[in-house]
Amino acid sequence: KAGVTQTPRYLIKTRGQQVTLSCSPISGHRSVSWYQQTPGQGLQFLFEYFSETQRNKGNFPGRFSGRQFSNSRSEMNVSTLELGDSALYLCASSFQGNTEAFFGQGTRLTVV
Amino acid sequence: QKEVEQNSGPLSVPEGAIASLNCTYSDRGSQSFFWYRQYSGKSPELIMFIYSNGDKEDGRFTAQLNKASQYVSLLIRDSQPSDSATYLCAVINTGTASKLTFGTGTRLQVTL
């Protein structure tokens, strides 16, 4: 059974640009959550999607957005990038959201 | 008060000893509890989950939950150098059923 796949693995962007990250969950999992991990803040919840609907949202500015497609794949978009957005972005997949969640390898975003 | 608290460590144990990692949480409505292992530069890997009071064993790992004391722990028996990593405690609260709230992690060092 394939795990959670995130693409791309690494990104370097310039301030002010936008970026889109992709996540393919484990087959059969309908919940996809996104997290930001930084050395200073640890793992912070961004949002969660289930059956194409955002069910939960963390305390991040509106520059951070996401969506989920009918095949449960999810994308996360960050607009007007800031230096502070440099982080490891992790996607987690679970069957229905309140059960075991499995992480992808992450996308390391560097904003210069 | 942080929602999920862990001692940052490092916790140093000799090879073959028992490592005991602790986590406290503030929300009495927390319903699901998880332990993740994260190696440097890698994504978190789920190693244990527990939903009910008591102990749950899986190989060398035992998770212990005490909801009355709002305390969850992870014991690693026969610690190996490959167990050296950061261990993250995460909880799901009833009110935000799909959101994992993480502690800052405990760094474990298993010495030869």
Q: What does this molecule look like?
A:
The complex is a heterodimer of chains A (112) and B (112). Chain A has 112 residues and is mainly β. The relative contact order of chain A is 0.33. The mean pLDDT of chain A is 95. In chain A, β9 and β10 (102-103) form a beta hairpin. Chain A is built from no helices and 11 strands. Chain A has strands at residues 5-7, 10-13, 19-24, 31-38, 42-50, 53-57, 64-68, 74-78, 87-94, 102-103, 107-111. Chain B is mainly beta and 112 residues long. Chain B has strands spanning 4-5, 11-14, 19-25, 30-38, 45-50, 54-58, 61-66, 71-76, 85-93, 100-102, 106-111. In chain B, strands 2, 4, 5, 9, 10 and 11 form a 6-stranded mixed beta sheet that branches. In chain B, strands 1-3-8-7-6 form a 5-stranded antiparallel beta sheet, with no helix packed on it. Classes of the chains: A mainly beta (112), B mainly beta (112).
Summary tags:
heterodimer; A: 112 residues; mainly beta; 7-stranded mixed beta sheet; 4-stranded antiparallel beta sheet; 0% helix; globular; B: 112 residues; 6-stranded mixed beta sheet; 5-stranded antiparallel beta sheet; 11 strands
List the topology elements:
The complex is a heterodimer of chains A (112) and B (112).
Chain A lengths: L4 E3 L2 E4 L5 E6 L6 E8 L3 E9 L2 E5 L6 E5 L5 E5 L8 E8 L7 E2 L3 E5 L1
Parallel strand pairs in A: 2-11
Antiparallel strand pairs in A: 1-3, 3-8, 4-5, 4-9, 5-6, 7-8, 9-10, 9-11
Chain B lengths: L3 E2 L5 E4 L4 E7 L4 E9 L6 E6 L3 E5 L2 E6 L4 E6 L8 E9 L6 E3 L3 E6 L1
Parallel strand pairs in B: 2-11
Antiparallel strand pairs in B: 1-3, 3-8, 4-5, 4-9, 6-7, 7-8, 9-10, 9-11
What would the average pLDDT of chain B be, to the nearest integer? 94
- Specify Rg of chain A, calculated over alpha carbons: 13 Å
- By DSSP (H or I, 4+ residues per run), the number of helices of chain A equals 0
Distance between the termini of chain A: 37 Å
Fraction in beta strands of chain B? over 45%
What kind of sheet is the major sheet of chain A? 7 strands, mixed
Number of strands of chain A: 11
- H and E string of chain B: EEEEEEEEEEE
Low-confidence stretches of chain B: none
